[in-house]
Every structure is written in C-alpha cells, then in structure tokens.
Write a structure and sequence with these properties.
The protein is an alpha+beta fold. Helices cover 21% and strands 32% of the residues. The protein has a single domain, classed as tt1808, chain A. InterPro entries: Nuclease_put_TT1808 (IPR012296), Restrct_endonuc-II-like (IPR011335), Uma2 (IPR008538). Keywords: Endonuclease, Hydrolase, Nuclease.
Length: 189
C-alpha cells in the first residue's frame, strides 16, 4: 500500500484525477482526497474474494446485488473506494458505480493493505454509513465482523477463525466459515 504523491496536482485529489491513472493492475482508491495505491492481490486473497462472492450470490435476495472488485463506490467527489466484495441495493446502482454506501463491504487482507483496511478504510466505511463491514484474513483464516451501532459507530459483532462459522443476518442471512473461503486451496497449502 502506497500513498502516491509524485506527478499529482497539489492539494486534495478528486474522482476525475482517478480517470488518468494507469491501467497497470494496481488498485487506485481515493479517501478524502488522498490517493491510495495497492498492488495486485495474491492467490489466497483472490480465492477468498471469489468464494465469498459466490456464496453471497447464491443466497442474495432479488432486490440486492453482489459485486467483487474492481467496482467503484463513489460517495463524494473526493472519495472512491473498491471493496473486495460488496452488497448493495439494486436501485442504488448507476451504470458506472455505486454512489451511496453499500449495505456490506468486505476487505480481504493483504500484507500491504492490512493497516489501511483496518484503519483508514474502516473509518471511511463508517463515515459513509456502511452497515456491515467484514474483514477476512486469508493467512490465518479469520472473519471479523463490524456493524454500525445506534450511534453510527462500528461495533465488533463477530470474530471467527478456521472452521467456526458466522451466521450473518445483515444484509441477509448467510453462513460463512473462514476456511471454506479458501476452497481447494485449503487442502493444498
């Protein structure tokens, strides 16, 4: 995870500045005008994104949609993020992006993004009003779940490891066990 500041205009960036970023396999995100660049993700990360996306899609109600990155959540002119997996209301989507908070945002940790996902991005999702924020650790299979409380602050509601399962109610009922998200990789590594 790097914060890019060379060759960029002075001051906070806008979503328009993201349109000139290179198509180089990296993820470019903007939070409060600050650019964050992360490298292409690894094998375990991508397997978990795929498995979780499929699991959510299998039980997703008709009025909701599941997307995996890259897909832009652009809630302000100076903020555009791309959760690894998200669930949103179908009616909230545009042809280009999601201009409002998703119901669920999921980040699969990578060595280069762990602090960013657990701090900067978590705070951004909380400010946006993302009701459920899940963080998945692919190295030590673990699912940590935060949900907004009545005061609009994230509260830890689950922390499961290995084969233990989390029975989500938000944004819809689904059972998730961290090791299941590795699929066949779980047996081979």
């Amino acid at each position: 995870m790097t914060v890019m500041d060379t060759c960029m205009p002075p001051g906070p960036l806008t979503v328009a500045d993201l349109e000139v970023m290179p198509d180089d396999g990296r993820r470019y995100e903007l939070i409060d005008g600050m650019l964050f660049v992360s490298p292409a993700p690894g094998t375990r990360h991508q397997k978990m994104v795929l498995q979780l996306g499929m699991r959510l899609e299998q039980v997703c109600p008709d009025d909701l949609v599941v997307f995996v990155a890259p897909f832009a959540v652009q809630t302000a002119n100076d903020t555009e993020v791309q959760p690894d997996v998200l669930v949103a209301r179908d009616e909230d989507l545009t042809e280009k992006n999601l201009p409002t908070a998703p119901l669920l945002a999921v980040e699969i940790l990578s060595p280069s993004t762990t602090l960013y996902d657990l701090n900067t991005k978590k705070a951004a999702y909380q400010r946006m009003g993302v009701v459920s924020y899940w963080v998945v650790d692919p190295l030590d299979p673990r699912l940590t779940v935060f949900e907004l409380d009545e005061a609009g602050q994230y509260e830890l509601v689950a922390d499961v490891k290995g084969d233990d399962a989390f029975d989500a109610e938000r944004p819809f009922p689904v059972r998730v066990a961290p090791t299941d998200l590795l699929g066949r990789l779980n047996q081979s590594r």
